[in-house]
Amino acid sequence: MGFSETHQAMTALNRMVLAALISHNIPTLEVQPSSCVVTKSGRIEVIETRPLEKLLEIGFVPVLYGDVVVDSEKGFAILSGDQLISSLAIRLAADRIIVGVDVDGLYSADPKTHPSAHLIHRITMPELKRLQHVIGEANVTDVTRGMLGKVLELMPAVEHGIHTTIVNAAKPNNVYKALKGQRVIGTTIEGGLVDAKSS
Amino acid sequence: MGFSETHQAMTALNRMVLAALISHNIPTLEVQPSSCVVTKSGRIEVIETRPLEKLLEIGFVPVLYGDVVVDSEKGFAILSGDQLISSLAIRLAADRIIVGVDVDGLYSADPKTHPSAHLIHRITMPELKRLQHVIGEANVTDVTRGMLGKVLELMPAVEHGIHTTIVNAAKPNNVYKALKGQRVIGTTIEGGLVDAKSS
């Protein structure tokens, strides 16, 4: 019953996003992860992307979201939007990923509770891995308040050379500017290739 | 935009069905056709059934419905619940199909406007094909008010030997009784094998 109820709740937010897009005349369609994904211990095992690819081909803006999905080992699992982003970006050979959040990007600590926290404008893969290790060793709650987890989930896409930026979606026009390739305050995650060039 | 809006409207009815099932403690999940089906000129070309199979395996009651879907030839198409029933029953090797409608079954004419119309309790495949031919030749509106179209859409499943019955879902406990294998007034469609035996 928890699965059914959680899924229903998750679709409620998504309907608001879809309604907003439709009200701005953007042809959109939800693509429901629970209808096309099976995970294995929480990681995507099966993902049917053909309806999604067709939607993109004919000019639609498909909307996916974190969902409860069936899991071949555990019965069901929570599939995060972050894992979806990374997986789909790789499978659909995306040029870039723009992640919209409610802060300016990845901070050294939670900016909502630590005024001294500073925004990390660029972070490389080795730096990310070091940060992950430090947090893992200390066995503490993620000081970046989940943002590091989000970034780590995007690592497979970054490793595939997909340019990835985190921006503040709560600031007007930020996502639009980022989509248009304009410079926006945020965190850019540098993959192995970029890393090698810049060092 | 019509695609987006139609899909949104179609999901609204489905949410009512899901909410009703959940309120009766039935673990249910919608499986959204537009997220896992691609049609070709209106006929199912791609259908991802693995999430659906997993749901059935762990005891869920998945709910699908007629939907707008992407179509590899026409851009998009209307996929009827009837085509889904037939296709899924074959793919998932169903024992039987019970179709719930708002009349007692297939009538000789529309029972809502023709009081003399009689219910067809059993119909064989050859009889169905003859009826289809007569209506096609006459080039008239389907006198059975869409019910013949529904039955014809189920023919592939019937041809696969899947026992198919149409019952009145508006009458209390009818669907329940039919699911339990009890006798319910309705129309049974007899496949080729049954036909050969009874003749």
Characterize the structure shown.
Chain A is an alpha/beta fold. Chain A is built from eight helices and ten strands. In chain A, the strands form three sheets. Chain A has a four-stranded mixed β-sheet with strand order 3-2-5-6. In chain A, a hairpin with a 3-residue loop joins strand 5 and strand 6. In chain A, 32% of the residues are buried. The C terminus of chain A is likely disordered.
Unreliable parts of chain A: 194-199
The helix content of chain A is 40-55%
Number of strands of chain A: 10
Quaternary status = homodimer
Major sheet attributes of chain A: 4 strands, mixed
Largest interface: A-B, 39 and 39 residues
Radius of gyration of chain A: 18 Å
Number of helices of chain A: 8
Intertermini distance of chain A: 53 Å
Structural class of chain A: alpha/beta
Run of helices and strands of chain A = HEHEEHEEEHEEHHEHEH
Give the tags:
homodimer, 199 residues, alpha/beta, four-stranded mixed β-sheet, 8 helices, globular, disordered C terminus
Task: Chart the SSEs and their pairings.
The structure is a homodimer of 199-residue chains.
Chain A: H1 2-23, E1 28-30, H2 33-36, E2 37-40, E3 43-47, H3 50-57, E4 61-63, E5 67-71, E6 75-79, H4 81-91, E7 96-101, E8 122-124, H5 125-138, H6 147-159, E9 163-168, H7 174-179, E10 186-190, H8 192-198
Parallel strand pairs in A: 1-4, 2-5, 7-9, 8-10
Antiparallel strand pairs in A: 2-3, 5-6, 9-10
Helix pairs in contact in A: 4-6, 5-6
How would you concisely characterize the structure shown here?
The first copy, chain A, has 199 residues and is α/β, with parallel strands linked by helices.
